[in-house]
Write a structure and sequence with these properties.
mainly beta; seven-stranded antiparallel sheet; 11 strands; globular
C-alpha cells in the first residue's frame, strides 16, 4: 500500500512538472500485455523516443481516441507482416516471441487475414499485445498511425 501511495505521489509530481511535456507516468489497465505487464502496474513513458521493433508503445485507440492502449511494436513502416498458423512472420522470418502468452489467433471479420502479406504503410505501425488471446490490436483494427502515439515505455514499476 505504501508503494502504491509512493508511486501515485511520484506520478502526480511528474505530471505537474515541466517534464510532463517529455515524459509521463501511466497505469496499465487490462490483461492485454500480460505476462510482460500486469493490470494496475505503473509505467514511465517517453514522448521523445522513436518507436522501434519490440518497443512497447502507448497510443490513442484507432477506434476511440478517448481510450489509450498499450501494445508491442511488431512492424515498422515498409515492413512486411504475415500471420500464418499462429506464427508472426516479419520480413520473411518467423519471430521468436518468448514474451507472448497464448496463440496469435486471428479475429473473424478482423483486419488481418490468415497467410496474407501486408506492407506497413509510411506513418503507421503494426502492434500486437503480448497476451494475444485477450488483446485488441492490429489484427483486429489494422495499422496504428504514428500520430496516435502517446509515448514509448521506458520503465515499468
Amino acid at each position: 500500500m505504501i508503494l502504491v501511495i509512493f508511486i501515485v505521489l511520484i506520478a502526480l509530481f511528474l505530471q505537474l512538472c515541466l517534464f510532463s511535456y517529455f515524459f509521463g507516468v501511466m497505469f496499465i489497465t487490462g490483461p492485454a500485455m500480460m505476462p510482460s505487464l500486469r493490470d494496475n502496474q505503473a509505467i514511465f513513458i517517453s514522448r521523445l523516443k522513436p518507436p522501434g521493433h519490440q518497443s512497447m508503445v502507448v497510443f490513442k485507440s484507432v477506434r476511440n481516441p478517448d481510450i489509450t492502449n498499450i501494445s508491442r511494436v511488431i512492424a515498422l513502416p515498409r515492413d512486411k507482416i504475415v500471420i500464418r498458423n499462429n506464427t508472426v512472420i516479419l520480413n520473411g522470418k518467423p519471430l521468436t516471441e518468448d514474451y507472448v502468452a497464448g496463440k496469435t489467433i486471428l479475429y473473424r471479420g478482423g483486419f488481418i487475414k490468415e497467410n496474407t502479406e501486408y506492407v506497413v504503410p509510411d506513418g503507421s505501425l503494426f502492434v500486437l499485445g503480448d497476451n494475444r488471446e485477450y488483446s485488441a490490436d492490429s489484427r483486429e483494427y489494422g495499422f496504428v498511425p504514428i500520430y496516435n502515439l502517446v509515448g514509448i515505455l521506458i520503465k515499468a514499476f
